[in-house]
């Protein structure tokens, strides 16, 4: 397939909406967001929600990671140089909130809904539960994932050949977890885990041991 074989349409986060409207034939989305939207739309139509399929880019490209939707905390060089302690304290607060959210997801979601009531719909609650396994419990950037995505961007000619990722873990004060030795296996297990979450619901984490 070449660029002449298709028409690219900018959708933002409205991929599911555009598919349902018939504005596009397919789109790039996130399993725990747009796929959930399509599944729920199929249910309302009396159709099988499993008809909503997603071909994972990370699997297609054999990246062995799924960090395309990593949350980034961005600061300019001047602020970083002048406020290292503020950054450390901010990240400690994020870690504390993350620990609470992972330990008590229902309570954390309810508190968030109290702050932002518009998010407290059945659809958004299902999205949150499907996102639950993806949340990092350490907040550490995974070096392997950044290398893979960086090289993938260069292969697509989105990034220049000499581009270097400018992330850092230096402001995190807790132990860095060990990276998995078999990322492709971890990716496969995550896909299976998410299928179970889709079927059974609830808030479930994937425990990777021995890989």
UniProtKB/TrEMBL annotation:
Checking Gene3D superfamilies in the record gives: Periplasmic binding protein-like II
**Source organism, top-level taxon:** Eukaryota
Q: Which reaction does it catalyse?
A: N(6)-(pyridoxal phosphate)-L-lysyl-[4-amino-5-hydroxymethyl-2-methylpyrimidine phosphate synthase] + L-histidyl-[4-amino-5-hydroxymethyl-2-methylpyrimidine phosphate synthase] + 2 Fe(3+) + 4 H2O = L-lysyl-[4-amino-5-hydroxymethyl-2-methylpyrimidine phosphate synthase] + (2S)-2-amino-5-hydroxy-4-oxopentanoyl-[4-amino-5-hydroxymethyl-2-methylpyrimidine phosphate synthase] + 4-amino-2-methyl-5-(phosphooxymethyl)pyrimidine + 3-oxopropanoate + 2 Fe(2+) + 2 H(+)
Q: Which UniProt keywords apply?
A: Iron, Metal-binding, Pyridoxal phosphate, Thiamine biosynthesis, Transferase
* GO biological process per UniProt: thiamine biosynthetic process; thiamine diphosphate biosynthetic process
One GO molecular function term of this record is:
transferase activity
Q: Does the keyword Membrane apply?
A: no
The UniProt record lists the keyword rRNA-binding:
no
Q: What InterPro entries does the record point to? A: NMT1/THI5, SsuA/THI5
Q: What cofactor is this protein dependent on?
A: Fe cation
Cite the SsuA/THI5-like domain residue spans from the record: 1-108
In what pathway does it function?
Cofactor biosynthesis; thiamine diphosphate biosynthesis
Its assembly, as annotated, is: Homodimer.
Q: Which family does it belong to?
A: Belongs to the NMT1/THI5 family.
Role summary? Responsible for the formation of the pyrimidine heterocycle in the thiamine biosynthesis pathway. Catalyzes the formation of hydroxymethylpyrimidine phosphate (HMP-P) from histidine and pyridoxal phosphate (PLP). The protein uses PLP and the active site histidine to form HMP-P, generating an inactive enzyme. The enzyme can only undergo a single turnover, which suggests it is a suicide enzyme.
This chain belongs to the protein called 4-amino-5-hydroxymethyl-2-methylpyrimidine phosphate synthase
Originating organism: Candida maltosa (strain Xu316) (Yeast)
């Amino acid at each position: 397939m070449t660029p002449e074989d298709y028409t690219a349409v900018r959708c933002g986060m409205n991929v599911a909406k555009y598919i349902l409207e018939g504005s596009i034939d397919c789109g790039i989305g996130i399993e725990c967001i747009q796929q959930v939207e399509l599944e729920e739309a199929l249910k309302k139509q009396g159709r099988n929600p499993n008809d909503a399929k997603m071909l994972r880019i990370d699997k297609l490209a054999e990246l062995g990671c799924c960090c395309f939707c990593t949350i980034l905390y961005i600061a300019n060089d001047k602020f970083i140089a002048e406020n290292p302690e503020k950054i450390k304290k901010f990240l400690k607060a994020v870690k504390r909130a993350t620990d609470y959210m992972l330990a008590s997801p229902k309570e954390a979601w309810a508190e968030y809904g109290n702050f932002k009531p518009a998010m407290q719909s059945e659809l958004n609650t299902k999205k949150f539960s499907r996102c639950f396994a993806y949340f990092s419990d350490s907040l550490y950037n995974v070096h392997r994932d950044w290398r893979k995505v960086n090289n993938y961007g260069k292969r697509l000619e989105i990034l220049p050949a000499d581009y270097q990722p400018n992330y850092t873990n230096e402001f995190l004060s807790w132990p860095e977890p060990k990276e998995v030795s078999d990322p492709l296996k971890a990716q496969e297990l995550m896909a299976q885990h998410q299928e179970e979450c889709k079927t059974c619901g609830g808030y479930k984490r994937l425990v990777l041991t021995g890989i």
